[in-house]
């Protein structure tokens, strides 16, 4: 049982929190921004300080590698991202990067024997906050291995044209990439030829570990999901001149649908399975003027659950409801995307669970409701994830918190799981 | 009984429809735009052709006047606006301008005796579509006569700074006005010193006349109204990681409130009084991302009814509901504005009703749910309005339609009411 250093981990947490510090507890650190470059420079400096070789690929992913005893063995990689959402926190992404760094530092400092080269990695542009979509670069790198309906959304040429969603000195992602000091060779990309396993440590971003009194979680899968647009069509008229009885108010229809949808979905989920989640995050109305009745209303619906049968039942309810009339308005629904559940590699999940058990920490099996680079990487090479307890389940906000102790615990669990994988793979 | 000319009215309708023609049945004719200037030039040309004297005031309102037999009598004015909303129709505003023109043309052509000078008028910037707010210039001109809580929203200095909401060559309303060829002298403004009565003909913008099989309506009042923002506060979390049972979803709260509000308001309005209308035209959510639960949701609420007691009861329900918890979210409400019911001048309303009755047309008493320049003018001089039947109640859209016959009928009713006022006033 090897252990990572709380002191070293704390120092990394405090240091990386400076790069993009928004002045009130969190950061804004868009991918390829000057702030992200500061974090990347820190990564490079610290990794070179322990003798790691730092390489970059053509989409600016960074790889810091220490050799193992077998010059022919494939690399085991620990990676996540260093970019954040706007006004995000100090853990989402960077925790997995710091974990990789901490594992390498521990291995070097404690001279831990290992056969495989070990790599700490930064995935570029996971959030997609400045240049959408999210998980852009893992979508590019793993493209040949993704199901076709996913792969088509992450074609290299299209991704290069992605326009900034906020202020930027570059017209698109391709230009930002061309100007990046961390753009390297395509030959350096993570691939099945050179890598045998990928671990991603992340904060949970939900309240389940905390509610159960557990410090860390062994992630089993990333839940399947579907995303729809639900639209209502009425007609517009003047707020002051058109009698209530004759109105076909699209926003009223959307509100009535939304309430009834909660009722029917919750009836389906009688047992209150906490893994079944659905969210209406966006809403749009037309004409959207306070003196007009809306003729159009539209909301997004995001539904997640590991079981495809339950997701199908939810979709059946949705289709049934869309065929009904809502406050004299018609309804139609349009699929935006559907993703299957991604199961993580059984061997790697087992190594993570054994490590947590041997460490004597409070842990549990857990599912991921959020998407991560590991989810795409899992189509390409054996992959798994570890979660750290998140204060109040808050994430993608400046109040995002993981204790230094829990960060160190997830790093230690990663280290020991990596050492098990090191023994397992040729 | 004098009658206006269907042929002349039809010609005006076709002609004015060209100025701002958007190419698919309607117009975009912002106030003080080149398109509005074409309409103003047409007005000037036609009015001068019948011997009217055309004057402009300092806020570009235009007045075309033919003298009466008494050189000391005050003017009787018929006016409305020639500006439209974006992609509006060929009747809103311009119908009242064409009515004034048609009345003057008929009086001149038929040599109808009258004591008072008669004026056809264009009010500047009623819609406020390019430079808000709506009814800007009547708000400026009638400012000294408005209740203080209304007057403060239309101060001359502030109005001049109004910034364009769409493309414009001018930085604000003041600059557009300074550049207008129709800017004249402040002394020419409509005022109680020089004017004894104002008539505004308008399309109904609702379906009531059509549903009742009536051609025209004698408007009694402009309904009082209040406008609120209704806000919900929950907290945000990730769509994939946060269990349903722990969510405080502000959009869900807004939807539940909206549905319950319809229920309680409709219970209050048991008798289905068609004059009671309420509208939720705008909705806003934060963060408004499909992968996030919303922590904030807000909608606008516009409530109209002539009776202040009923409006108070509605407000009481609203306050009662705001004090409750909605889907674990808190609610607060904020008043945007409150306007009392404006009753039109009893004598003038009577003249309109007598005229319609004498004409043998199908008419009714009607209320205005929409705001008009006449509503502000009524605080300053005796004022009333006439409504023309609107196809399907559609307005502020390119499908806005009034038959040429109904346009002519409302002009004839105006003519005869004006002649009654001409006899009534010294």
UniProtKB/TrEMBL annotation, chains A, B:
Keywords: Hydrolase, Metal-binding, Zinc. Gene3D superfamilies: 3.30.70.360, Zn peptidases. It comes from the Bacteria. GO terms for molecular function: hydrolase activity, acting on carbon-nitrogen (but not peptide) bonds, in linear amidines; metal ion binding. Residues 224-325 form the Peptidase M20 dimerisation domain. Transmembrane segments: none annotated. Its cofactor is Zn(2+). Zn(2+) 2 binds at residues 92, 127, 396. Zn(2+) 1 binds at residues 81, 92, 202. InterPro entries: Amidase_Cbmase, Bact_exopeptidase_dim_dom, Peptidase_M20, Peptidase_M20_dimer. Pfam families: M20_dimer, Peptidase_M20. Binds 2 Zn(2+) ions per subunit. Belongs to the peptidase M20 family. This is Zn-dependent hydrolase. The lineage of its organism: Bacteria, Bacillati, Bacillota, Clostridia, Eubacteriales.
């Amino acid at each position: 049982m090897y252990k990572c250093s709380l002191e070293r981990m704390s120092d990394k947490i405090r240091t990386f929190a400076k790069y993009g510090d928004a002045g009130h507890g969190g950061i804004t650190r868009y991918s390829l921004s000057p702030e992200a470059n500061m974090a990347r420079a820190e990564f490079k400096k610290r990794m070179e300080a322990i003798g790691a070789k730092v390489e970059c690929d053509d989409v600016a992913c960074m790889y810091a590698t220490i050799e193992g005893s077998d010059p022919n063995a494939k690399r085991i990689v620990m990676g996540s991202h260093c970019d954040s959402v706007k006004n995000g926190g100090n853990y989402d992404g960077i925790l997995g990067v710091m974990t990789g760094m901490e594992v390498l530092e521990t291995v070097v400092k404690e001279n831990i024997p290992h056969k495989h080269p070990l790599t700490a990695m930064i995935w570029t542009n996971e959030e997609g906050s400045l240049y959408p979509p999210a998980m852009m670069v893992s979508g590019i790198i793993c493209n040949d291995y993704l199901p076709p309906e996913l792969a088509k959304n992450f074609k290299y040429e299209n991704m290069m044209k992605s326009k900034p969603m906020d202020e930027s000195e570059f017209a698109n992602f391709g230009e930002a990439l061309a100007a990046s000091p961390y753009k390297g060779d395509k030959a350096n990309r993570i691939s099945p030829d050179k890598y045998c396993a990928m671990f991603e440590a992340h904060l949970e971003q939900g309240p389940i570990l905390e509610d159960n009194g557990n410090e860390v979680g062994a992630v089993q899968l990333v839940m399947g999901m579907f995303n729809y647009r639900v639209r209502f069509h009425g007609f517009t008229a003047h707020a002051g001149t058109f009698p209530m009885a004759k109105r076909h108010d699209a926003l009223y229809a959307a509100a009535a649908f939304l309430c009834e949808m909660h009722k029917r979905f919750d009836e389906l989920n009688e047992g209150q399975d906490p893994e079944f989640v659905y969210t209406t995050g966006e809403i749009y109305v037309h004409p959207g003027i306070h003196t007009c009745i809306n003729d159009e209303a539209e909301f997004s619906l995001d539904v997640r659950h590991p079981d495809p049968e339950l997701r199908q039942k939810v979709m059946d309810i949705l289709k049934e409801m869309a065929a009904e009339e809502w406050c004299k308005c018609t309804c139609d629904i349009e699929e935006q995307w559907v993703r299957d559940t991604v199961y993580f590699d059984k061997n790697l999940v087992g190594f993570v669970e054994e490590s947590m058990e041997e460490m004597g920490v409070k842990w549990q099996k857990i599912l991921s409701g959020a998407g991560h680079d590991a989810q795409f990487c899992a189509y390409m090479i054996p992959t798994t994830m570890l979660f750290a307890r998140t204060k109040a389940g808050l994430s993608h906000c400046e109040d995002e918190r993981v204790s230094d102790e829990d960060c160190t615990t997830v790093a230690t669990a990663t280290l020991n799981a990596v050492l098990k994988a090191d023994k397992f793979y040729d």
